Amino acid sequence: MTARPAVRPSARSARLATLLLMGVTAVWGSTFFLIRDLVVHVPSADFLAVRFAIAAVVMFAVFRRQTLALSRADLLTGIGLGVLYGAAQLLQTTGLEHTDASVSGFVTGTYVVLTPVFGALIFRDRIAPSTWVAVGLATAGLAVLSLRGLAVGYGEALTLASAALYALHIIGLGRFSRAHTATGLATVQAFVIALMCSVAAVPDGLTLPSDGGQWASLLYMALVAGAVALWAQTWAQSHLPATRAAIVMTLEPVFAAFFAVLAGGEQLTARMIGGGALVLTAMYVVELLGRRTPETTAEQDPPAELLHHEV
Questions:
Q1: Whole-Å CA distances, 251 to 28, 50, 154, 285, 307
Q2: How far is residue 96's CA from residue 225's CA, in Å, rounded to a whole number?
C-alpha cells in the first residue's frame, strides 16, 4: 500500500485559513438580523463606534504585548488598513440609508470583482483563469441572492465606493499581513475604526442601547463579530491570496440567508438555494482547480520593505 504524501505546512495553513475565514463569514452572516433590530433604536454610526471601541479595548487587553511589539512600518500598515475598513463601514452604512438592503448587499459584494482588478493594477498580480471563473460564479450568486432591480443613485454610488475600499482592505491584508503580526495589526485596526466611527457619531450625540437584549446583541457583535473576526481575517489573509479570500467572503450573504431562515423567521426560497449554490460552486472552483496555479501570499513572499525592517 502506497503511503499518502504529507501535506506541506503551507498547504495545511492555507486550508486552515480558508476554514477560519469561512467561520468569520458565518459569524458576520449571523449578525444581519441582529443589526436590523438594533439600529432601529441606536443610530448606525453610534452602534459602530461602541461596537469597535469595546472590541479595541478587549483586544488590547489580550494582545497588549503583540501590539506594542509592532514595528513602525507595521503600525503604519495597521493604521492604513483601519482607515480603509472604517471608511468602508461608514460609507456602506450611509449608502444603506438611501437604497434597498438587497441592492446594497449586491453592490457591496462587488468587492469580489474589484479585488483581482485592483490587485492586477496596483501590484501586477497574475490571476489564474480558474480564479476569474470563480469570481464570475460568485458575482452571479450574489446577484441571484440579493438583486431585485438596480437603480444607480446616491446610495448605490456610496455603496460602490465602500466596496472599492473593502477590496483595497482585502488586498492590503493579503499583501502586508503576516501570522506573527496578525494580532497586533487587528488591534490597531480596531482602534482606528472605533475612532473614525466615534467622530462620525459625536455631532448628533452618542446613543447607547437601552435594555439588556440590545446590549447582549451589541456585545456579541463587538466581541465575536468584531474582535475575534477581525483577528481571524487578518491571520487568515496572511496565508491566502487576496482574491481567494474575497471569494471565500462571498459566503457571507449565504450564511445571512441561512440564519434569516433559521432564526429570523424568513422563508426558504428558490433564489436562496440557487444563489447559494453558485457561491458554493465558486468556492469549489477556487479551492480545487485553483491549486494548479497557486498564488503567493504575504507570509510566503513578504514585501521587501517589511524584510528590511525585520533585519
A1: 10, 26, 27, 14, 34
A2: 20
What pTM was estimated for this model as a whole? 0.82
Instruction: For residues 236 and 174, give the distance between their C-alpha atoms in angstroms, rounded to a whole number.
Output: 9
Using CA atoms, how far apart are residues 236 and 15, in angstroms rounded to an integer? Answer: 10
Cα separation, 48 vs 220, in Å, equals 13
C-alpha cell at 69: 511589539
Which of 83-97, 117-131, 194-208, 229-243 is predicted with the least confidence, judged by mean pLDDT? 117-131
H-helix or E-strand spanning residue 230:
helix 229-236
Going by C-alpha positions, the residue among 231, 161, 187 that lies closest to residue 74 is 187
Count of other CB atoms within 10 angstroms of residue 274: 13
pLDDT tens digit sequence for 11-50: 788 889 999 999 999 998 888 777 777 878 888 889 999 9
Instruction: Judge contact between 303 and 173, C-beta under 8 A.
Output: no
DSSP run (H or E) holding 63? none
Give the list of residues 6+ apart from residue 21 with CB closer than 8 angstroms, or none.
232, 233, 236, 237, 240, 245, 248, 249
